[in-house]
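REQUEST FORM: STRUCTURE PREDICTION
Request ID: SP-0412
Submitted by: Lab K.M.
Chain count: 1
Length (residues): 367
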Amino acid sequence: MKIKITNLKTIPLVINLENPIEFGTRLVDKREFTIVQIFTDIGLIGESCVPIGDPISVASIIDRKLKDLVIGQDLFAYEKIWDSMYREMYRDRKGSAIRAISAVDIALWDLKGKALEMPIYRLLGGYRSIVPCYASGGYYYKNKGLEGLAEEMAMYVDKGHWAMKMKIGALSVKEDIERVKTARETIGPDRILLIDANNSYDSYTAIKIGRVLEELDAYFFEEPVHPDNLSGSKKVAEALDIPVASGELEYTVFGFRELIENGGVDIIQPDATVLGGITEWLKVAALATANGIPIAPHWEQEIHMHLVGALPNTLWVEYFHEEIGVRQEDKLYVDNLQPKDGYLHIPDKAGLGTELNPEAIKRYRID
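STATUS: Completed
RESULT:
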């Protein structure tokens, strides 16, 4: 089977948040997306929706640098396509350049699944069709306080989750420890509590708060230091018994090799929308498996449920409930995934199994 790619289009979107959210390092008042649509000579269309990175920059790179490398290629020559895009952009081998490659690559995988009439998780290995997920939240909102945090955590318990994540780093160490204690008391001793600092600390402060997190039985400590502070991450990992998780802002298998060889990470969090797409994510997963490091991918449940479902060395999908208003993808997709008892059932649909809402695209599109 040979399927020719005939065209590629990009659509940048912006959705302003009604209630801005805050975490350790910044305030977020909008969510930005880049949609890629890839067309073929047999009428099939592949789509991706990349949620992170400046959409004007990502779309511009695709339109100016990558589009001509993709059009005319055989759909199944995906390694050739990926290599040609990377060779074009390797001088800018982090940031928007790799996010642009990611957006194209994910749309290609959606297209491959549709062409073969298979969901991507089966195409990649079919390890399981029901995947564990944790409820991701615990953000800072204006006037939220400890009571609001407790209400949010209780909601996750009521929805059947056995694992949930919360943020720290925007307040003093003392205040954030109180927040973690509140969360632990709310969910009880038997559920899993994950802690995300979003790069808020130096290594010494991270170690100090990490020791308290150990006492509160946190399962992992995510991004305690700046992602480029590899020596600091190593200090934290060596000082604590609690696993250090990181990698959501890392790019390509080369970046993950450095991260793993440095010894500062116990659980990696590769994001296919950031690091170079599904093609590169699979190489990172192989590297992690060879080093005995488990994988808990970051963000975008619609994509990562397939990757967690495909391979054995994976822990969870990160899941965001619509009620907390963080992701905004619920405004873009026709149907939204709903977990049951802490698990997602991967739809038995070809490709990613998602459908974007044309009216939403029209509403949130920017020039």
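NOTES: The longest strand covers residues 5-23.
Reviewed by: T.R.
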